[in-house]
Amino acid sequence: MDLAARVLACTDWTTLTFEESESDLERLLHGAKEHGVAACCLPREWLGWWVDRRPGPELRVATVLNFPDGLRDLAQIEAEALEAAPAEEWDVVLPYAAFQRGDEGPSRELLTAVREWAVDRTLKVILETGSQWSRKGLQRAAELALDCGADFLKTSTGKVPVGATPEAVDQLLDVLQGTGKGLKVSGGVRTLEAARAYVEQVEAVMGPEFIQPPTFRFGTSSLLLP
To answer: Is 184 a catalytic residue?
Structure first.
């Protein structure tokens, strides 16, 4: 499989401007059908539209919770989870600001609840790795996310100045080794060469078998879109 096809097979094409039109979603759906991406990540309001039109469940649909700043309270996130029911995958933002202040409580409470609400959905926890983390703090947050049932650790919302970085990916890989859980590299992955560098970095640690949709994703709003 050539690099582009391999990357696309592990990609979550994403539109989260929250100003989407039906024509935007139609273009994304057409491209997703044609190129065989793993999933598309959409605002919750478009989930019903998407599920009615996609070719089948092999094209998975994702949405976001507690997005993008991680500051909603549990009641608000529960309401979001009800709206997110049509999606097979939930990408939830860790309450990272509180965590960085030394308060793990909101993160544990949120992730425990969301894991219960998600049932068998794929749960990706966004750590916003480009924010003000110490190495020890990011490692602890990643470990807590896995302890609370995350299926993937995800780098970034793509809504902050610093998205994914090789340094952050390296730290998350340290935590992921031996867990059987996945990694989603998101935030600023805009070119095939950038994707290639991350594929090579991850393969060097986790092996080539890790680069498949159950354990590895790219999140992007531009990479290889038609």
So the answer is: yes
- Determine whether 33 is an active site residue: no
* Whole-prediction pTM: 0.97
Q: How far apart are CA 176 and CA 111, in angstroms?
A: 18
Q: How confident is the prediction along the chain (226 residues), in pLDDT tens digits per residue? A: 699 999 999 999 999 999 999 999 999 999 999 999 999 999 999 999 999 999 999 999 999 999 999 999 999 999 999 999 999 999 999 999 999 999 999 999 999 999 999 999 999 999 999 999 999 999 999 999 999 999 999 999 999 999 999 999 999 999 999 999 999 999 999 999 999 999 999 999 999 999 999 999 999 998 888 7
How far apart CA 198 and CA 204 sit, in angstroms, is 10
Is position 154 annotated as part of the catalytic site?
yes
Identify the structural domains of the chain with CATH numbers, from first to last. Answer: 3-14+22-220 (3.20.20.70)
Q: Which of 12, 124, 151, 184 is catalytic?
A: 184
- Of 12, 124, 151, 154, the active-site residue reads 154
Number of Cβ atoms within 10 Å of the Cβ of 102: 7
- Of residues 12, 91, 151, 181, which has the active-site annotation? 91
